[in-house]
Specification:
Length: 129
């Protein structure tokens, strides 16, 4: 569904796979039924083993076909991209004014709360845009 389950904002010099090591332990206790998570091709290698050891979850990498010359929606990966699209409706995320990481995290929580409430109040929730 693309709903926010956790957020950590960090400096741009930290790789996504290192950011995952900060985020996953924080959300693990809130997600007792999760068994499988997805990541893009940049999160391969040691992270797969780390996720299994630390959380007992299976990390599956969603890779794109290197031979593909045109755009193609990849399974599961579009959910995250759609969530980022939702966040871009909030002007503050287009400008990145925040000086504190915590401020950016809280603004993201507010934005996603609005999106989740909108989703919950739809008559047909499968048509969220």
């Amino acid at each position: 569904m693309g709903l926010l389950i956790g957020v950590i904002v960090h400096s741009a010099d930290l790789q996504d796979r290192d950011g995952a090591k900060l985020l996953l332990p924080k959300v693990k206790g809130r997600l007792p039924r999760v068994q499988l998570i997805w990541a893009d091709g940049g999160d391969t290698g040691k992270l797969i083993k780390w996720v299994k050891d630390e959380t007992a979850w299976t990390l599956e990498i969603v890779k794109r076909n290197r031979d593909l010359q045109t755009f193609k929606v990849l399974p599961k990966r579009w959910i995250v991209e759609r969530m980022f699209g939702w966040l871009m409706f909030w002007r503050i995320f287009n400008r990145h004014h925040e000086r504190q990481h915590l401020t950016a995290e809280n603004i993201m929580r507010i934005a996603m709360t609005k999106n989740m409430l909108r989703y919950l109040t739809l008559k047909n929730p499968t048509t969220i845009k």
